[in-house]
Design a protein that fits this description.
The chain has about 190 residues and is α/β, with parallel strands linked by helices. The chain has one domain (about 10-185): P-loop containing nucleotide triphosphate hydrolases (Rossmann fold, 3-Layer(aba) Sandwich). Helix content is about 40%, strand content about 20%. It has seven helices and nine strands, in the order βαβββαββαβαβααβα. The strands form two sheets. A five-stranded parallel β-sheet has the order 2-7-1-8-9, sandwiched between helices. It has a four-stranded mixed β-sheet with strand order 4-3-6-5. Helix 1 crosses helix 7. The longest helix is centred in the C-terminal third of the chain and has 16 residues, at about 145-160. The chain is globular. It starts with 9 loop residues before the first strand and ends in a 10-residue tail after the last helix. Bound molecules: adenosine-5'-diphosphate and guanosine-5'-monophosphate. Adenosine-5'-diphosphate binds near residues 18, 19 and 23.
Length: about 190
Amino acid sequence: MAPSPLPGRLTVITGPSGVGKGTLVARLQQRHPALWLSVSATTRAPRAGEIDGQHYVFLSRPEFERRVAEGRFLEWAAFAGHLYGTPRGPVEAHLAQGQPVLLEIELEGARQVRQTFPSAFQLLIKPPSFAELERRIRGRGTDAEEAIRRRLDRARVELEAEAEFDAVLVNADLEAAVVELERLVGLGPSPAGS
Ligand code: ADP
Ligand code: 5GP
């Protein structure tokens, strides 16, 4: 059967760990509750405060691999020693209903989505400087030293891929970045202007 174009807009947000993607997306969702954020699956252990099914679906590696074999991920990739993937079904269902969908994924996943959804809007979030990125990732206080080191190594690769993206947003001042993000993903200012 020929694939039919899916209504609804797909936006991919990528950027180094600690740049503020989660913070920005949470702010955006507060302002636009209709915006649907895909919940990824991962083999990494939950951080303090993370809820299964809400922040991530936490899976064992065999279970994750079984789902890969069954074609249940839209994209998936290894990052800092763990596997991460976007469950296919919910994304396709939301797009088919014409709802805006957001994926917050790393570089390899973004590249896969570029192949499967060439019309997706791809946005790279950058820190004001590498030193500030390191300060944020350490300040967050959720990762062990080895995990921080792997994330910072990967950050250099992700930032070098800037030219692949449709737009780049520097997350310096948080409030200004939220407004710019809102504009870039095509949601415009919220009616309440809040
Ligand atoms: P990511 O989801 O990209 O890994 P987080 O959203 O967890 O990053 O943010 C990492 C840390 O940086 C958090 O402690 C967050 O509060 C902080 N942060 C996010 N945006 C800014 C900003 N614009 N200025 C200063 N700190 C920020
Ligand atoms: P963290 O462990 O800090 O939550 O996430 C590490 C990295 O994995 C981040 O860059 C995040 O964007 C990315 N990530 C989260 N979910 C997915 C996913 O479903 N697919 C891919 N490819 N990357 C993901």
